[in-house]
Amino acid sequence: MKLNAQPRVTRLGMSFLLIALSLFTLPALSSAAKIGDNYGGGIVFFVDKSGQHGLIAAKTDILGRSSGSASDGRFIWPDAQAKCSDLVSNGYSDWFLPNKEQLKQLYLQKSIVGGFTGTGYWSSTVSMADRAWVQLFSNGIQLSFNTIHYFVRVRAVRAF
What we know:
By secondary structure, this protein is an alpha+beta fold. It contains four helices and seven strands. It has one domain: Roll (Mannose-Binding Protein A, Chain A), CATH 3.10.100. Strands 1-2-3-7 form a four-stranded antiparallel β-sheet. The longest helix is centred in the first third of the chain and has 26 residues. The radius of gyration is 23 Å and the shape is globular. About 4% of the residues have low confidence.
């Protein structure tokens, strides 16, 4: 007498495997991050067309200050870059200083992200040898500032 239990067990095992995998993949697909979500250590402020990739802003400005700054939270550009790349927040260490376009997107979502002052924020985009772009959060204008003579606020971002 020959037993044919092997194919049935294999099909049953494959069925369980597929069901188990769907329990992990379906929620991941249905829970794509949306603008305003608390996600990945911060607040989502940009999502691409696929809905699977975007940008997250830290919940607060970088604390501290550059030497010579009269106010907390203000940095010269080289210090701003260093503070962002050294930041470890909410378990994530891949933060960076946003470029000019990313900072503009952050400005457009400032009320959703929250916690911004009406002053300027450094971008990582250089305009000339000793100048980088700053996004003014009071009126949306972007200006080029000297990288070592101006003390400006910083908000780190990360990608997902």
